[in-house]
Specification:
Distance between the termini: 29 Å
Structural class: alpha+beta
Order of helices and strands: EEHHEEHEH
Radius of gyration: 13 Å
Shape: globular
Number of strands: 5
């Protein structure tokens, strides 16, 4: 699992992005457990994630409404399958409104860029409602 920590900070909220290859839901749970073995990630406000496993989209907003759907859209556009991407947020005490979607998208972009995964379609996601 690759982890890129402290990549975005806004009004006290901090973001990280991580991920790794998966074949099935069991692999997803194993990677999430690995991530949460780090107390810092276990105590995060949200660990939203998305993956496309053998063509089947799966996601969990983990309380960050709409984050999983936006992440799935970006993974689809990137053509990235059988790979889990997790966006972690530590809430900073102030609501971010729609900026939280921009931060989720920026975190996924950061992951795709740093890992060299996906295609150029991931660089321009459409904003998601919510």
């Amino acid at each position: 699992m690759e982890i890129f920590d402290k990549i975005i900070s806004d009004r006290g909220s901090r973001y990280a992005v991580s991920g790794g290859p998966v074949r099935d839901r069991k692999d997803i749970q194993a990677l999430l457990s690995e991530l949460k073995r780090n107390k810092r990630f276990a105590k995060a406000t949200h660990n939203s994630w998305a993956a496309i496993i053998s063509g089947e989209p799966v996601k969990d907003d983990d309380g960050e409404s709409g984050a999983g759907a936006l992440m799935l859209q970006m993974l689809e556009r990137a053509g990235l399958e059988d790979h889990l991407v997790v966006v972690t947020r530590w809430y900073g005490g102030k609501h971010l409104g729609g900026d939280r979607f921009r931060h989720v998208a920026d975190a996924v972009r950061h992951y795709l860029h740093q890992t060299g995964l996906g295609n150029d379609g991931a660089s321009r996601p459409e904003p998601s409602g919510g």
